[in-house]
User: Which sequence fits this backbone?
């Protein structure tokens, strides 16, 4: 069912979805929203001295994809993800998980879902200071009442998975930030969750370590193929990891799309500002620069429509000849010229140098 | 940067200057001008209008006593069993049978107890702590105060777990219901922590009679508040992410509490435990007045008989126990978690098993060698004669100087000040305090202050309240005037800090009672003695907060000042001092509260104020009188605390440090 690289073209089942979800802070927020039938403008909220942390969020997270919620601080992304896991009760709206209404789940059901189906990684790691690495990783299993031998065996596996073997008996305070987050990741994976929430997991780390951890995440995901909801304020991180990105501003989702969608068709000038400095060659695929095929196209070197420009840029510039763009079945669907690639690389296509 | 830091306080003090001038003017006029007949009830509260709180409280206590005897008896019996066991185990030995057939199972041998203390010190703090605890307890044996020391220790051993459990339970409640915490627990704790120690004794005395049980209950009541606070604070301080993690891992409510929140808050909780131990020790000494026995009783007896040497010796024993328990509990609190021990039961519990074995063996040996039970007199020695001789020598040689100094201070400063305070018109003070409250914290604070001040007047205790204010004010002023410069000096020199810090640490561990002893030797009873003892007791926070406040000024601010070309003095005056001001004010606040608590205890050395009122009520077991006077004292403390805290809060907000 799952392909190795997820593709927006293939519609996979929805794992988690929300419709018209609101989180409004302030006195009598629920009543206020109910009176307005679950809708309120920013001006109305201001007037009532309420804070709309999440406003009218609608999104679907599909099985096996990395869904990134990107926004600057105060944009409501952390509140949104906490609503999705019901750490915070949404004020109004629908929330479904595996097709079931998550908002109707009672305390016991919620505990059960969280114990077996959800995992979460936190920005500041949230490791328990009084437990060793091994005990921290085994903790979620331990509260389920799983026996010591079994949970420790499982914890050892997870610690191996995040390459922390040999640190089992250390305390969190004895580890570096990157190592602590590896423990956080191992711990969240110990219960083999179906959905994996990562709340700015790498934001508290140094840039080099952050990059290393991103690579680690890509590696883990290629093995585990979890459904991931990942929060970040770093657009480059989002571009690097995401299958799809939701951009949030002032509590609203202003655009949802693949990195390529966002770069090619930013919905607002706000989105365009983020995408302005992105290395477009790494985001855009051959399809984006493709021109209609000609009679000669069949004779050129071939490149897949999904391939990122950066992956063949050097080759096409060296060859000084166009490449043929081929679809999934190998059929020629267009061609791409060295000039178009050079224009993209130099930024000329967007008016740079003018 | 330095400009910003400077300009804010100067405008503040500018506005304040005006207010103070007005306030001062009102007070001076009120005192100096003859009050018109019609207004005199506003100056001196008329007796006819005194609200009989005393009688109400007294009546209530009497009602409790008659109707709840079954409860007090049951509670006393419940507490008595473990207490008796602890007394027997540590001090008295277990007696079985009567008459000829009677035999005694000996108490734990001093050798075993001393060894265990040293061993605990070694496990948690290494050799130095081992030496401190071991030698400390050994000295108790050598100075022949072992029996009393163990009685005191037995009370602590029974009391502390009780305080911890109660404190945890209330603290957990407070954490989970912020509203209860804000409106019920927090005010109750404020009241309990500002109530004078004596006031705790009175209801216990009334309900349970003079016995170790009532002493234990008073001690527990007095020592529990810091545990509650530490629990609420510790739990509230657990990062939100960790709480979220507990939920996401699917913890049930009790799993979340016991396996995530409490362990995460452990460092705060252990600090609470340390405070509980220290307060319990402090209180158990004072509770000797209602039958606690032990070292406090020795001090009390010796002081009453003016046996300075004996009092000093018992006092030193208290200090030794205090220092050992403090260092030991701090070391336990600071101990980092250790790697999990996966070895067998015996290997894991070597330390405890060893300790138990040593206790059993030494105690068994004491059956054969009585010296292990009670060290023969020939091996103990007493320092009392030396203290007596020393005091005699000082009195013979320096009596004139000391006495002249004492009389000089009394006649020229204290007595006129006292007269001035006694003459303060209650309504004027109420107006000024309320205005201050309004200025600093708005209408809410103004209302609270007005009500509390009005209570002081309407109980008919206005004059003793002003006497207390005078003593406490002078003591806090002197303590600040001495403590702040010392703190500043510490902040500028690591070497000075290294010398001063252990001294104030030790001062802070010494139970309040013990400060009185050496001062009484030299200055006899009266206000001067009370002041000196109070200053010594309350100087610690002034030093500590000043030092800490200056040292924590961000390094960037200093660098900004240096780059702007500040001289050292400018740097200090215009950067460090303004930034550290809120912290220093909090130190002064603590100094005031400590002064208040100490000045009340000084009723024992013959001050005339609210403390004396409580003290008399205690000796007559007059619950109404004692509790109302205690409340007035507590309210004075709360008024001072609220005003200063509000002031500090404003200062911080202005500087964006809130």
Assistant:
């Amino acid at each position: 069912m799952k392909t190795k690289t997820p593709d927006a073209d293939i519609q996979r089942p929805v794992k988690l979805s929300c419709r018209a979800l609101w989180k409004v802070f302030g006195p009598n927020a629920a009543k206020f929203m109910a009176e307005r039938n679950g809708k309120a403008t920013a001006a109305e909220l201001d007037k009532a001295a309420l804070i709309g942390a999440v406003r009218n969020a609608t999104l679907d997270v599909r099985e096996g994809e990395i869904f990134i919620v990107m926004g600057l601080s105060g944009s409501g992304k952390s509140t949104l993800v906490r609503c999705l896991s019901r750490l915070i009760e949404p004020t109004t709206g629908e929330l479904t998980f595996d097709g079931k209404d998550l908002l109707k789940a009672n305390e016991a059901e919620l505990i059960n879902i969280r114990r077996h189906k959800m995992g979460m990684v936190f920005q500041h790691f949230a490791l328990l200071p009084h437990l060793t690495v091994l005990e921290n990783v085994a903790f979620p299993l331990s509260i389920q009442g799983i026996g010591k031998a079994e949970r420790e065996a499982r914890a050892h596996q997870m610690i191996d998975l995040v390459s922390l073997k040999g640190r089992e008996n250390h305390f969190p305070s004895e580890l570096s930030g990157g190592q602590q987050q590896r423990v956080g990741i191992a711990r969240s994976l110990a219960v083999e969750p179906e959905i994996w929430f990562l709340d700015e997991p790498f934001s508290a780390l140094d840039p080099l370590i952050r990059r290393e951890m991103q690579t680690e995440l890509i590696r883990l995901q290629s093995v585990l193929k979890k459904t991931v909801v990942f929060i970040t304020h770093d657009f480059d991180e989002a571009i690097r990891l995401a299958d799809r990105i939701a951009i949030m501003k002032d509590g609203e989702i202003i655009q949802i799309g693949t990195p390529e969608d966002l770069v090619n068709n930013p919905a607002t000038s706000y989105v365009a500002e983020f995408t302005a400095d992105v290395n477009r060659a790494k985001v855009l695929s051959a399809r984006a620069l493709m021109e209609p095929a000609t009679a000669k196209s069949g004779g050129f070197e071939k490149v897949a429509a999904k391939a990122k420009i950066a992956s063949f840029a050097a080759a096409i510039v060296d060859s000084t000849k166009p490449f043929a763009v081929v679809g999934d079945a190998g059929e020629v669907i267009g061609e791409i010229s060295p000039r178009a690639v050079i224009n993209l690389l130099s930024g000329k296509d967007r008016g740079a140098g003018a | 940067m330095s400009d910003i830091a400077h300009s804010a306080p100067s405008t503040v003090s500018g506005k304040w200057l005006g207010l103070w001038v007005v306030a001062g003017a009102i007070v001076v006029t009120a005192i100096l001008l003859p009050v018109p007949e019609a207004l005199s009830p506003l100056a001196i509260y008329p007796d006819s209008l005194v609200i009989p709180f005393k009688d109400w409280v007294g009546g209530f206590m009497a009602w409790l006593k008659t109707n709840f005897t079954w409860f007090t008896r049951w509670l006393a019996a419940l507490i008595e069993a473990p207490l008796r066991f602890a007394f027997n185990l540590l001090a008295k030995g277990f007696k079985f049978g009567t008459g000829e057939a009677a035999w005694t199972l000996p108490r734990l041998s001093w050798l075993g107890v001393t060894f265990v203390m040293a061993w605990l010190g070694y496990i948690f703090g290494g050799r130095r702590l081992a030496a401190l605890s071991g030698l400390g307890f050994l000295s108790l044996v050598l100075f022949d105060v072992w029996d009393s020391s163990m009685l005191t220790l037995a009370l602590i051993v029974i009391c502390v777990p009780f305080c911890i459990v109660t404190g945890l339970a209330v603290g957990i409640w407070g954490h989970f219901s912020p509203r209860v915490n804000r409106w019920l627990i927090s005010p109750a704790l404020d009241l309990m922590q500002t109530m004078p120690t004596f006031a705790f004794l009175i209801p216990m005395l009334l309900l349970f009679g003079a016995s170790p049980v009532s002493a234990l209950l008073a001690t527990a009541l007095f020592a529990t508040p810091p545990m509650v606070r530490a629990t609420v604070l510790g739990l509230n301080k657990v990062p939100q992410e960790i709480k979220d993690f507990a939920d996401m891992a699917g913890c049930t409510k009790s799993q979340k509490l016991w396996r995530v929140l409490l362990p995460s808050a452990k460092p705060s909780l252990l600090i609470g435990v340390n405070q509980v131990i220290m307060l319990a020790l402090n209180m158990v000494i004072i509770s000797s007045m209602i039958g606690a026995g032990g070292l406090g009783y020795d001090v009390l007896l010796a002081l009453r008989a003016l046996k300075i040497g004996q009092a000093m010796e018992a006092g030193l024993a208290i200090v030794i126990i205090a220092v050992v328990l403090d260092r030991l509990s701090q070391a336990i609190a600071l101990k980092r978690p250790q790697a999990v021990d996966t070895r067998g039961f015996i290997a894991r519990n070597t330390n405890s098993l060893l300790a138990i074995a040593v206790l059993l063996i030494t105690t068994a040996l004491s059956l054969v060698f009585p010296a292990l039970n009670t060290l023969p007199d020939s091996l103990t020695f007493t320092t009392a004669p030396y203290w007596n001789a020393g005091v005699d020598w000082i009195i013979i040689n320096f009596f004139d100087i000391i006495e002249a100094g004492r009389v000089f201070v009394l006649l020229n400063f204290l007595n006129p000040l006292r007269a001035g305070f006694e003459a303060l018109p209650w309504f004027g003070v109420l107006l000024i305090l309320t205005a201050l409250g309004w200025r600093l914290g708005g209408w809410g604070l103004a209302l609270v202050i007005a009500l509390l001040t009005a209570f002081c007047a309407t109980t008919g205790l206005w004059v003793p309240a002003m006497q207390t204010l005078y003593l406490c004010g002078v003591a806090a002023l002197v303590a600040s005037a001495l403590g702040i410069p010392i703190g500043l000096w510490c902040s500028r020199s690591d070497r000075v800090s290294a010398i001063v810090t252990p001294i104030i640490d030790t001062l802070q561990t010494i139970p309040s009672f013990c400060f009185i002893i050496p001062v009484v030797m030299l200055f006899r009873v009266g206000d001067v003695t009370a002041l000196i003892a109070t200053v010594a007791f309350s100087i610690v926070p002034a030093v500590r907060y000043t030092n800490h406040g200056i040292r924590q000024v961000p390094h960037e601010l200093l660098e900004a000042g240096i780059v702007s070309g500040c001289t050292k003095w400018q740097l200090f005056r215009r950067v460090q001092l303004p930034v550290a001001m809120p912290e220093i004010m909090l130190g002064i606040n603590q100094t005031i509260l400590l002064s208040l608590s100490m000045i009340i205890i000084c009723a024992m050395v013959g001050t005339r104020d609210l403390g004396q009122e409580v003290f008399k009520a205690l000796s007559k077991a007059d619950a109404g009188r004692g509790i109302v006077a205690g409340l007035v004292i507590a309210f004075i403390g709360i008024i001072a605390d609220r005003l200063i805290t509000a002031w500090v809060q404003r200062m911080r907000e202005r500087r964006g440090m809130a």
User: Anything to note?
Assistant: Chain A has two domains: 14-280, 281-350. Chain A is about 40% helix and 20% strand. The CA atoms of residues 35 and 165 of chain A lie 56 Å apart. The two ends of chain A are 48 Å apart (CA to CA).
